[in-house]
Amino acid sequence: MARFLILSILLFASALLQSQSVHSFTPSSSVAKSLDIRSINPESAASPLPTSSLSSPNPSDNAIRTHGGSSVQLNANAWPLTASDPEGTIPDYSLAIQRIGITIVSCYYTWYAQRQYTNVLASAAFSVLCTLVFDKRLGNALFCGTFAGMCSKAVIPSSSLALGLGTVTSILYEGMIHYNNKFAGLGGRLGLTAFIATSIVALLSGVTTGFQMDVLSFQALTMKNVLPMALWHAVGAIATIILRETSDEARSADPVRASAVVGLAGALLLQDKSAALAVYGGSFVGMAAPPRLMYGILPGKGSAPATGSFKVWAAFGLAAALGGAVHGATIDFGFWPGGWGGKAGMCAFVGCVLYRILSTIVFKLLGKTF
After folding, report:
1. Highest mean pLDDT among 48-57, 246-255, 328-337
2. 187 contacts 233 by C-beta, under 8 angstroms
3. With CB atoms counted within 10 Å of each terminal CB, which end of the chain scores lower, N or C?
């Protein structure tokens, strides 16, 4: 009954926002500077765009655009076509307070909500609700905080540690993501940030990671975990990128909301908690920038060749499957057990990195520039 009520509220709110989507606001470059606007994509920061790229005298040009030369159609508000923070702009102090606050609150709430709900449901539902209420520019910090808060009580046993984890996560988020924009365009970087924060707090509180070099062997791997995790990760990634790049509703193209919606659907529809977590982990790969994942092109540093929809989905599915295999391997090896915050996102990030390495090797062998 509780899940039905949650889903009903979210569907009603989404329908209400969709009816108001025609009133969406795209700030000018001058307003963007004063408001410290950054990309809405938590996994990739957009490069500075001229005002002319944000609007077109032809309304039809604003309705559907092409992403980096790709043939995948996007609505006009999809990443990276929104206003972004120009390089060198100093973040606004009040907004920084909001980012830190939302990171700590989302971490604590997600951790606390696991008294009644699964970690995936707690994180995804809270994230969707917050994207309906708060400024979407806080989505990055919000999502990062919920990932850390997905820790179980075996890792974070007390409220004080949960608040401490949120604080550490906010510090790492500010340093790694907001100010230095590390790993721009790659999926899973927020989860990686939360994973590092969780590991720091766990180390200080004496919680073991279970990491041992002597157990690293193929004999310890079982297809019982590796294959299902790879499959469900791929499902989550493909569902997310399809939702982002083919949705008629501008807000659904927001990577934070797209990922959270996919995670929420997995939590509500799949009884297997591991499968739901894998779908959610795969959705983090789906938040990547296609040119960055497929061709290694940093946001704003070049354009990608024309790419069909199937090729985009296949690339995201393969990258997610690699991350899922890594996730399954950590289960077999017993690494970071007991509900480790950010673990699924860290595995998604590793999957993206592995895909970039493998695709680069293949391109070089084929003698291609991309």
Report:
1. 328-337
2. no
3. N
Distances (CA, A) of 227 to 8, 272, 327, 362, 364: 33, 15, 10, 24, 29
Nearby residues of 361 by Cβ (< 8 Å), 6 or more positions away: none
Task: Please give the C-alpha separations between residue 206 and each of 6, 157, 199, 200, 203, in angstroms, as whole numbers.
Answer: 36, 12, 10, 10, 5
Q: What is the pTM of this model?
A: 0.75
**More confident position, 309 or 247:** 309
CATH 1.10.287 corresponds to the domain 93-366: no
Distances from the Cα of 368 to the Cαs of 286, 354, 359, in angstroms? 25, 19, 11
- Integer Cα distance of 349 and 215 in angstroms: 23
pLDDT at position 250: 56
Query: Domain residues of the chain, as ranges?
Result: 93-366
CA-wise closest residue to 193 among 103, 277, 296: 103
Give the residue from 151, 158, 45, 148 showing the smallest Cα distance to 102. Answer: 148
Whether the CB-CB separation of 73 and 64 falls below 8 Å is answered with yes
Whether residue 138 is predicted with pLDDT greater than 80 in this model: the reply is yes
Task: Tokens for 307, please give them.
Answer: 């790419």
Q: What is the mean pLDDT of the chain?
A: 77
325-348 CB burial, b ≥16 within 10 A, e <16: bbbbbbbbbebbbebbbbbbbbbb
> C-alpha 178: how far from its chain's center?
15
* pLDDT score of 300 more than 90: no
